[in-house]
Each structure stands twice: as structure tokens, then as C-alpha cells.
Inverse folding.
């Protein structure tokens, strides 16, 4: 469902020269799979997500969703993706219902179908009670649930989540994690970027560990454990941050 | 290798038709409006500000007037006479024949009886002194040899009261003195009637009010300039908040990225925001106009000075002007705020803009500033001046069209620039300043110009053309040949050099960007035939539009040009009015502009758009409006556009344009000789107002020539380059 091939992104530096934010990374995610794209700040996770969606043009390489390359057919890609960005906000002067139906409309969903989906998602994510409240009155956890619903309202087969539990309390995070499991069961391909490694361990089927623009290791948790000799993702992260990209490169093209 | 490769570059067909796109744009705009109109900050600028501002202005204005009149409410008028005799006569007239029960010279101000302090001065030139604000009122009398004031005499004195309408003191002094004279007249008549015992109908002293327009730069401010300036500033205030909130505000709140991540064209998103900002600006303008009207209607002082402008027609005109301004300014605002990452940053960008906007606004307050020449194309200043002229009911059509067209072009250019910036990768995700991204030249050579680049070029070209056209008109002292050479040079500079600079900036390849490729030879022949035959239709078009009143100034210019054509060497005439304009106008319109528009729309729309713009450039000639030229040039533009479309090159158009202009010029130049040699050319010698339709045989011959030309072009296969430019999308003709 999601394919990334030799993807590179370079930004011009303020003082001249180029900054390589993403360096020839390759991976793929199948339908019904949750892929954890993990790494410290500045590793290139968000840039990768943006290139996947066609919001940023890759310098080299390509990314494709459902067979459509993001550079050549960005609209086709966008139709198939739900995005929860790290700092995604809400329209404070619209009600939850208005905002979600607006996004359904933006994605070309018929009104009746959109209303059905809204009812389903509001029950599933537990925000039926404040559907007609202005978004400005919602708490952080409520806003994030609305954002999840916003990303899913057009029933995309792919979901890109960038720090979806950022700023949420334990209860809020729990709702998101449980919902991700539900999405996997629905057969969606999900990429999850997060710092909350214990959540990632619990919900992701495979992982790509990023460091300074490279995928330094990729595989299931068991594969990463055997390759790194570390028991948990936290240990792997610490090892990564102290020794740099010392973990063995993945077979899928990550370059150290 | 994988499934992605199989689909790379393949889009599923766009499910949206034009109707659906407009509907979606409407829904997007509605959502933006819903959000912005629920925000109390919008409501404050939209409703609360106008409700407070106008009554407050009215109070300040009233106080200002009172202070101008005098601290103790005692008006002080300086009255000028050209001779001591005039002053004495007037004083005697007033003293002898005024109401004996009334104290001399008393008057009423704000319901209080006051005695104005009059100062008499003797001056040489009353009008000059009024203009210089040295005197408030000039009194010019035409006295008989013996101006004795006796009831037994048939006294006949002409009296002119000379004052500046923009001077409050001047107006009040004139009204005051006029009243005194009227009272004296009445008394004189009564006494004379008694003496003669006959019915006296004539007024012995006939007064005439002579208004002098101030030519001084510094002097009292015209209130009619202040009002449009206030309205425009208030409209700006209304548009600023929505523009920031819908761009930088969305970015700050994190809703912009998810909107950009949706499958909607960025231009569609921007247009929705643009229409929302424009709507709020127009609402603000309406509320302001309404509040201003109410305030003026209920305030006596304001009613006295501004009451004349409160008519539905003037209000509608001013509203249309504000809409035009809002169209332009909303686009400028969105361009700036699209750069900003936060609300604060956007505000920081807008402060210099507001200050910049104030400069031409304040300039427009200068009394005597006329909306003409270059001032008609200075953004904001031209709108304020046109607003003032509308309120004073002194609008001239030529400058008004220049204001409307230039503002419209500026708005179009601004919105395309905003489209380039809004949601662009470099702007959305860069932490560095993004102005340089916008100004940066493309890294790779471009086959054709971008729409932004071409419209930017057009936005520079129109005012430059307007200025040069005015300057050429003023260079009357130059010999005719020199003027024609100058005109040819200006044409080359404007329509050649400016697009070339734009092409350099946009790294556009010259040959493909201007369609300079070699066309099929048959197309050249076909175009030449069309050019040779088309003059007959141009003549008929001139005949058809001869009923349109072009005004004396236009007739004067036309006569001068015709006179010049006969006096110069035909080679100079052909170069200046045929070869140069044909070549460089094709270079600009059917070359650069056509290539910028064509990839974005169908061939028909491209031809029409370039033709209308081409027509608009011919609408104003030497600062004078020529409506007939608009229609003729637009039709010519359509023919030229079609030839460009078929041939994929500008050269056949250059040939056709040259043949068309050249043939008409030669006919004009040699018409006397032709008429002498061939009798059927005598028809061309008729005076302008007696021109008649050409004989049928001429029309038939010309039609046949044009038809052969068209057939030759149609039968030649279209150039591959043109097919690629339009993506072979079946939008062709």
C-alpha cells in the first residue's frame, strides 16, 4: 500500500550548502500493518511523511501510495491518505460536526455518507456528546480525538500519524492506541511516528529506526532485538543517540 | 519492479467538472466566512468601529470648523477690493440701505448672533489673492462714472464675489456679503419704488458668485478627499484581520497543513480565502458607507458641507469603487500574510504596508490635485482621487477607465503572486525568510513564462505604457519625424524590453517563450492576405462606430495624427506605426502573454484574454479614451490570436499586423494621389463625418482575400509546439 524508494530530501541551508534531511530511505507498508517510524528529533520522520503526501517534493527517489506516486499524482495520493500532523489544530469557530462534515466535503464525500461516517466515528472515538460544541471549547484530548476523526472521515486506506499522542494524558493516549489497533483490524496501512516508544512497541508490527535522515535499522521488534542486542526500543534509542548510527543497516536500503 | 512504477504519473480522470469546481469553491468560501464572521474580532472591525468612528469624526469635524471660524465664534473675514472706490461704494450701500433695526454686520453662527470682523484690503489681482489664501473674498464691482447712491437714480452695478469653495472662511464670507447686498438691494428697491411710484421688477445690484479652484498645493484640505480616504482606510481595517487569520492564523493553529493535505488545488484554497477576505472587506465598506451616510444626514454641520454627495447614485459609485479597491487590496494582503508563520509576524509585515498606504492617501488630500496622467495609475492614490471626483460629480471618463483597468490588473497580478506563495513548500515549511524564494530565479531554463511572471510584466507594462503615451502627447514641440521615431523607440522599449527583462528574470527561453520559431511559409502568405483584406473591414468598423462620441480631445488627436501622416516620409510612418508596433505588440501579447496563459486554459480563452488585454491597451490614446478602438483592437486581437494558435509562431501575426496597419497608413498617406488617379478612391477623400460605406465590389474582393488567407492557414497542419503547449487537450478550436 505504501512504498518508499531511495527517498532523498535536501534543504538549502541559510548560510549556503545543503542539509540532507532524508537520505535515500526505502521501506514499504502493507495493508493491515502498523509501521512505526521512530527516531529522535530531527531524524527526518516528519519530512518523510510530508514527502509521502506530496506536501514536500523529494530531491530524489519516490514515494507512492496505492500505486500513485506522490510527486506525479499528489491528488490521488491525498485522496487515499488521512493525516494527523504533530501540531494539527482545529477550526475554533466551527462546531465539531461542521468541521468534520467540511473535511468530508473537501475529500468529495457525499453528504449522507459523510453523516453516517461521522456518527460511526463519534461513537467509536466517544465524542458524540460534544458534536455541536465549538472546537475552541474542547480539551486537548477531545481535540485529538476530533483530529483522528477528521483524518478518517473520508475512509482512507492509509493513515499517517505524526505524534498523535503528543500532549495527551494517559487516558487520551490509551484511546489513540486502542483505536490504532482497531484501524489495523480494519485493514488500513498505518505509519506511526512517535516518541512514546512503549506505545509503539505495543501497537506497531514493524519499525524503521531513523537517525540523521537515514533508516539505520528496520524490521519487527524481534528482528531489531536480535540485531541490536537490546531488549527494548528505549535501549535501542539510547544506543543510537550515544553512538550514532551504529545499528546494523536494514536490508531494505537504509544507509548508515 | 513494483506496482508504483506501473502507475507512476498516471492520474485518474479528474472527477470534477467546472460546475463542481465552482460549487466546491463556493462551499470553501462559505466555510471560511462562517469561521471568520463568528470571530468577535471581525465583528468589532466590521460593525463596532464604523458605529463609533463616524459620530466621533463628526464631533471632531464640527469642533474643527468652529475653531476655524474663531475662538469666540467671531468670524474674521479678509475682503479684497481692486480700488478704494469699490470698498467705499459697498460700505455705503450696506450702511444706507440695510435694515435699520438690525445691528450693522451682525450674523448668525450656530444659532448665536455674532458680528464678524471685517478687514478690507486693496489688491491688484483678486483671483490670485483668493488662490493664495491671502484674502477670503474678493469683491469686483463695475461702477458707473457717478456711483451716487440715490433712490431717484436707475442704479446698475455688477458685483462679482470671488472665493475658493474649499475654503470654509471664503464660503462663509461670500454668503455673508451676499446676504448684506441682498438686504441692501431690497431696501433700495423699496425706496426707489416709493420715489417713482412704479412697479420695480429688476434687482438693481446683480450679484454673481464666482468660484475659484485653488491651484495652491498647500491650503485647506478638500473634505471630498478626506471622505474616500477614511472609507478606504476603514475597508483596509476590515480586510486585515480576516487576511491574517485565514493564512498566518491557520498556519499557527496547525489547520493549514491538513487543508493543504486535502486533494484541493492550492489556488482553489487561496481563492476561497480571497473571496472570504473580499466579502468581509465589502461588508465593512457597506457598513462604513451606511454609517457615514447616516452621520452626515443627521449632523447639521456635516450636512452643510457634505450633503451634496448623499445621493443613491454617488453612493453606489463610491461603493463600486470600494469593491474595486477591496479586490486589489485583499490580494495584496493575502500575498503578504501568506509569507508569515504566525499572527504576530503577519502583523509585522502589514505595518509597513499600512504606512505605505497612508503616504499616497495623505498625498491625495492636497487641494487642486487632479486625477490625470500618471496619478491615474498610482495604486490607492488613484482610488482616493476618483472617490473625491465621484463625490464632487466631476468625473472624467478617461482617467476613470485608467483607474479601473490599472487597479484590476494590479489585483490580478497580486492574486497570482499570492497563488505562487500560498502553501508553497518553501513558505510552508521553511524556517528561513521566504521572500528570497519568491524572488529567486528558476534554476533551470523554462520553455515558457509562468503566469505570475507574465502578469507581473503586464502590471509594469500598463502603467509604463500609460506614462509614455502621456509624455509623447506632451512632446508637441518636437518635429513630427522625431516624435514618430520617439514613438517607435518607446514601443520597442515597452513591448520589447520589458518582456525580455521578465523573461531573463524567469529564465525563459527566448525562442519558445516568445514563440519565435519558424512558421510554415503558407501561414505567412495566409496572414499577409488576411492583413491586406482586413483593412476594408477596419474601415467599415470605423464607420459603424463613428456615431460614438469620442470627444473633442480625441478628434483633435486623430486630426493631428492624420496631419502628421501626410507630412512625414512614408518609410518613417510605416516604421513607427506599422512595423514597430506590429512586431513588438505581437512579441508581448501573442508571444509572452499567450504562452503564459495557454497551458492553464483552452485556446479560445487564451485568445480572448490576450485580445481583451490588447484592446485595453488601445483604449486610452495619449491620455484620452477611445471606446471605438477598444472594440476594433479586441477583434483584431482575436484574429491575431487565432493565427498565433494555428501557426505556433508570432511571425505570421507580425506580418498580418504590419500589412493591416501599413495598408491603412499608406491609403491615408496617398489618398489624395490615389483619388486623383483612380476615381473609385475618391470615397476615401470624404470628410470624417461624411464617410460612406465602401462599394460592394470592394467588400467582396476584401472578403475573398481574407477567405483565401484563412483557408491557407486552416489547411496547414497545426505546429507541434502549439499542440504541446496546450497539452493536446482537445481544447483547441
Amino acid at each position: 500500500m505504501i512504498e518508499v524508494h531511495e527517498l532523498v530530501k535536501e534543504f538549502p541551508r541559510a548560510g549556503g550548502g545543503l542539509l540532507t534531511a532524508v537520505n535515500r530511505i526505502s521501506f514499504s507498508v502493507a495493508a493491515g500493518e502498523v509501521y512505526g517510524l521512530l527516531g529522535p528529533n530531527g531524524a527526518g520522520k516528519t519530512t518523510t511523511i510530508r514527502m509521502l503526501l506530496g506536501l514536500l517534493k523529494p530531491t530524489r527517489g519516490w514515494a507512492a501510495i496505492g500505486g500513485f506516486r506522490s510527486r506525479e499524482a499528489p491528488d490521488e495520493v491525498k485522496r487515499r491518505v488521512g493525516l494527523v500532523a504533530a501540531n494539527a489544530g482545529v477550526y475554533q469557530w466551527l462546531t465539531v460536526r461542521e468541521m468534520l462534515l467540511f473535511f468530508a466535503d473537501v475529500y468529495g464525500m457525499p453528504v449522507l455518507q459523510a453523516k453516517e461516517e461521522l456518527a460511526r466515528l463519534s461513537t467509536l472515538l466517544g465524542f458524540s456528546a460534544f458534536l455541536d460544541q465549538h472546537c475552541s471549547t474542547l480539551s486537548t484530548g477531545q481535540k485529538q480525538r476530533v483530529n483522528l476523526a477528521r483524518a478518517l472521515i473520508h475512509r482512507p486506506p492509509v493513515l499517517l500519524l505524526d505524534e498523535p499522542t503528543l500532549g495527551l494524558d494517559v487516558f487520551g493516549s490509551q484511546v489513540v492506541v486502542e483505536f490504532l489497533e482497531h484501524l489495523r483490524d480494519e485493514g488500513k496501512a498505518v505509519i506511526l511516528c512517535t516518541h512514546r516508544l512503549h506505545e509503539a512497541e505495543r501497537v506497531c508490527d514493524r519499525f524503521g529506526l531513523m537517525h540523521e535522515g537515514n533508516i539505520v535499522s528496520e524490521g519487527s521488534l524481534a528482528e531489531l532485538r536480535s540485531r541490536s542486542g537490546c531488549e527494548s526500543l528505549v535501549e535501542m534509542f539510547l544506543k543510537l543517540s550515544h553512538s550514532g548510527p551504529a545499528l546494523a543497516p536494514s536490508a531494505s536500503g537504509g544507509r548508515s | 519492479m513494483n506496482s508504483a512504477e506501473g502507475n507512476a504519473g498516471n492520474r485518474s480522470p479528474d472527477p470534477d467538472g467546472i460546475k463542481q469546481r465552482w460549487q466546491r469553491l463556493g462551499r470553501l468560501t462559505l466555510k471560511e466566512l462562517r469561521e471568520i464572521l463568528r470571530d468577535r474580532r471581525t465583528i468589532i472591525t466590521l460593525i463596532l468601529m464604523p458605529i463609533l468612528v463616524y459620530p466621533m469624526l463628526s464631533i471632531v469635524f464640527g469642533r474643527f470648523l468652529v475653531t476655524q471660524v474663531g475662538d469666540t465664534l467671531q468670524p474674521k473675514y479678509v475682503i479684497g477690493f481692486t480700488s478704494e472706490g469699490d470698498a467705499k461704494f459697498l460700505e455705503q450701500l450696506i450702511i444706507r440701505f440695510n435694515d435699520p433695526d438690525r445691528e450693522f454686520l451682525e450674523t448668525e453662527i450656530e444659532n448665536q448672533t455674532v458680528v464678524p470682523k471685517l478687514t478690507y484690503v486693496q489688491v491688484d489681482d483678486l483671483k490670485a489673492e483668493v488662490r493664495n489664501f491671502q484674502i477670503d473674498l474678493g469683491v469686483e464691482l463695475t461702477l458707473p462714472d457717478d456711483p451716487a447712491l440715490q433712490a431717484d437714480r436707475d442704479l446698475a452695478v455688477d458685483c462679482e464675489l470671488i472665493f475658493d469653495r474649499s475654503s470654509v472662511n471664503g464660503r462663509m464670507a461670500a454668503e455673508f456679503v451676499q446676504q448684506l447686498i441682498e438686504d441692501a438691494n431690497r431696501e433700495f428697491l423699496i425706496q426707489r419704488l416709493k420715489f417713482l411710484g412704479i412697479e420695480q421688477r429688476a434687482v438693481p445690484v446683480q450679484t454673481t458668485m464666482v468660484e475659484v479652484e485653488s491651484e495652491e498645493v498647500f491650503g485647506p484640505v478638500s473634505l471630498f478627499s478626506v471622505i474616500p480616504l477614511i472609507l478606504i482606510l476603514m475597508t483596509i481595517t476590515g480586510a486585515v484581520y480576516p487576511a491574517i487569520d485565514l493564512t498566518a492564523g491557520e498556519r499557527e493553529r496547525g489547520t493549514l497543513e491538513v487543508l493543504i493535505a486535502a486533494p484541493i488545488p492550492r489556488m482553489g484554497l487561496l481563492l476561497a480565502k480571497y473571496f472570504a477576505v473580499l466579502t468581509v472587506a465589502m461588508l465593512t465598506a457597506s457598513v462604513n458607507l451606511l454609517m457615514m451616510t447616516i452621520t452626515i444626514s443627521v449632523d447639521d454641520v456635516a450636512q452643510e458641507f457634505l450633503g451634496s454627495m448623499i445621493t443613491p447614485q454617488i453612493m453606489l459609485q463610491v461603493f463600486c469603487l470600494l469593491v474595486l479597491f477591496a479586490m486589489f487590496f485583499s490580494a495584496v494582503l493575502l500575498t503578504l500574510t501568506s509569507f508569515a508563520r504566525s499572527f504576530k509576524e503577519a502583523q509585522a509585515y502589514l505595518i509597513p504596508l499600512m504606512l505605505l498606504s497612508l503616504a499616497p492617501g495623505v498625498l491625495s488630500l492636497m487641494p487642486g490635485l487632479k486625477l490625470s496622467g500618471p496619478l491615474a495609475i498610482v495604486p490607492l492614490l488613484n482610488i482616493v482621487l476618483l472617490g473625491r471626483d465621484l463625490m464632487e460629480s466631476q468625473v472624467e471618463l478617461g482617467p476613470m477607465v485608467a483607474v479601473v483597468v490599472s487597479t484590476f490588473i494590479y489585483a490580478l497580478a497580486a492574486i497570482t503572486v499570492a497563488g505562487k506563495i500560498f502553501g508553497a513548500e518553501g513558505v510552508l515549511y521553511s524556517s528561513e525568510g521566504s521572500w528570497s524564494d519568491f524572488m529567486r530565479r528558476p534554476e533551470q531554463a523554462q520553455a515558457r513564462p509562468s503566469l505570475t511572471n507574465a502578469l507581473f510584466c503586464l502590471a509594469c507594462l500598463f502603467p509604463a505604457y500609460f506614462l509614455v503615451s502621456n509624455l509623447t502627447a506632451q512632446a508637441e514641440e518636437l518635429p513630427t519625424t522625431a516624435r514618430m521615431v520617439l514613438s517607435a523607440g518607446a514601443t520597442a522599449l515597452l513591448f520589447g524590453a520589458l518582456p525580455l527583462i521578465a523573461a531573463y528574470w524567469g529564465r525563459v527561453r527566448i525562442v519558445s517563450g516568445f514563440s519565435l520559431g519558424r512558421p510554415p511559409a503558407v501561414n505567412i502568405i495566409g496572414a499577409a492576405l488576411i492583413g491586406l483584406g482586413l483593412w476594408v473591414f477596419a474601415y467599415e468598423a470605423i464607420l459603424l462606430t463613428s456615431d460614438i462620441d469620442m470627444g473633442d480631445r480625441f478628434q483633435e488627436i486623430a486630426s493631428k495624427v492624420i496631419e502628421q501622416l501626410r507630412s512625414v516620409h512614408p518609410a518613417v510612418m510605416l516604421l513607427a506605426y506599422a512595423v514597430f508596433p506590429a512586431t513588438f505588440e505581437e512579441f508581448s501579447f501573442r508571444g509572452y502573454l499567450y504562452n503564459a496563459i495557454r497551458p492553464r486554459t483552452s485556446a479560445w480563452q487564451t485568445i480572448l484574454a490576450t485580445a481583451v488585454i490588447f484592446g485595453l491597451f488601445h483604449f486610452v490614446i495619449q491620455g484620452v479614451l477611445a471606446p471605438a478602438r477598444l472594440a476594433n483592437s479586441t477583434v483584431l486581437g482575436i484574429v491575431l490570436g487565432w493565427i498565433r494558435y494555428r501557426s505556433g509562431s508570432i511571425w505570421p501575426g507580425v506580418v498580418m499586423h504590419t500589412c493591416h496597419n501599413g495598408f491603412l497608413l499608406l491609403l491615408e498617406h496617398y489618398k489624395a494621389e490615389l483619388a486623383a488617379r483612380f476615381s473609385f478612391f475618391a470615397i476615401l477623400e470624404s470628410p470624417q463625418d461624411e464617410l460612406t460605406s465602401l462599394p460592394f465590389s470592394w467588400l467582396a474582393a476584401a472578403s475573398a482575400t481574407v477567405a483565401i488567407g484563412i483557408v491557407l492557414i486552416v489547411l496547414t497542419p497545426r505546429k507541434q509546439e502549439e499542440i504541446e503547449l496546450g497539452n493536446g487537450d482537445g481544447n483547441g478550436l
